[in-house]
Design goal:
Layout lengths: L11 H12 L6 H56 L5 E5 L7 E4 L5 E4 L4 E5 L7 E6 L1 E5 L8 E4 L3 E5 L3 E7 L2 E10 L2 E5 L5 E4 L3 E5 L4 E5 L7 H4 L1 E2 L4 E2 H12 L2 E4 L8 E2 L3 E2 L3 H12 L2 E5 L2 E5 L1
Parallel strand pairs: 5-7, 17-21
Antiparallel strand pairs: 1-4, 2-3, 3-6, 4-5, 6-9, 7-8, 8-11, 9-10, 10-13, 11-12, 13-14, 15-19, 16-18, 20-21
Length: about 300
């Protein structure tokens, strides 16, 4: 059994030996320690300097490639989302009622469309990105921004109208399958839905397309654009023609109680005048009287 050693058992010799042992600390070599540390730092710097140019180059290229891939992936996801959500194929529609005309629409490509009464225009949300297509029912005047690489197409029911940059008028009617196209400037190509029949219209010409025929002729109607300008010009036309034009341009419903009134001829211009003023001028010119039934003017001798 081991005995415990205590200070009472240490004699003078033992204390001397213990003191000598405790006093024998190893001396710290400061210079050697510093040299070792500096050597390790230099070795680390040498390794870094050796690997740095190539490492930085590879790392830089990798970051560029990763960034490009991230952008492409993001764009792809965005397009996919828009396509799946139906945004790109979403149809935008604008229409006018019986009391509204000359509604001006500016399309995304800068083209301008002016709608007549009871007219509807529609186009896709991505209009101009890959195609410039619109659908029209009613009547509208177009001023197209030129773009040789992306033709402008109007689907007008029984006819297709294609242009690069020009101004023209398109008239459709649900009750009549015929489509009428009047060209003001530039050239317009008109074709039927089958694409087998087509013609080129120059300024001043009117093209007509229905389910069976397609043809063109030089315009002889000075009031073909009156719905847009509000100006009507006459040189001996009968009142039945005048009343028809007034209905189209001013939305005036005029009924002749005596049919012989319709045979009278009119030579005065009508230029953006009020309905009451127009009807009074007509009655004063032919010694007629009128009465109003709702929105209808009734004329009598």
């Amino acid at each position: 059994m081991k005995e415990k050693m205590n200070t009472e058992q240490l004699n003078d010799r033992d204390w001397e030996e213990l003191a000598m042992f405790l006093s024998e600390e190893k001396e710290i070599d400061v210079d050697k320690a510093w040299n070792n540390l500096r050597t390790r730092i230099n070795e680390a710097g040498t390794n870094t300097a050796t690997k740095s140019p190539r490492t930085i180059f590879l790392r830089s290229n990798f970051m560029k490639i990763a960034a490009a891939a991230f952008i492409i992936l993001g764009l792809g996801i965005t397009v996919l989302y828009l396509g799946n959500s139906g945004y790109l194929s979403k149809k935008i529609s604008v229409s006018t009622d019986i009391n509204q005309k000359n509604l001006e629409i500016t399309l995304p490509d800068g083209s301008i469309v002016i709608l007549n009464r009871k007219t509807a225009l529609s186009y896709r949300a991505n209009f101009g990105k890959s195609a410039r297509n619109v659908t029209l029912t009613g009547e509208a005047f177009f001023e197209i921004t030129p773009n040789a690489g992306n033709p402008f197409t109007v689907d007008a029911g029984t006819a297709q109208v294609k242009v690069l940059g020009t101004s023209f008028n398109v008239k459709t009617n649900k009750a009549d399958p015929a489509v009428e196209v009047f060209v003001k400037t530039g050239q317009v190509m008109v074709s039927d839905n089958s694409g087998t029949k087509s013609l080129i219209l120059d300024p001043g010409y009117v093209g007509t397309v229905d389910s069976k025929l397609i043809g063109k002729s030089l315009n002889k109607d000075p009031n073909i654009m009156a719905w847009n300008t509000g100006s009507l010009i006459y040189d001996g036309q009968t009142l039945d023609i005048v009343f028809r034009d007034l209905k189209k341009v001013y939305n005036m419903e005029i009924v002749a109680d005596d049919p012989s009134i319709l045979e009278e001829t009119w030579t005065s211009p009508i230029n953006n005048q009020a309905q009451d003023t127009i009807i009074r001028l007509i009655c004063a010119s032919f010694n007629l009287s009128y009465r109003i039934d709702g929105h209808v003017y009734h004329l009598s001798k």
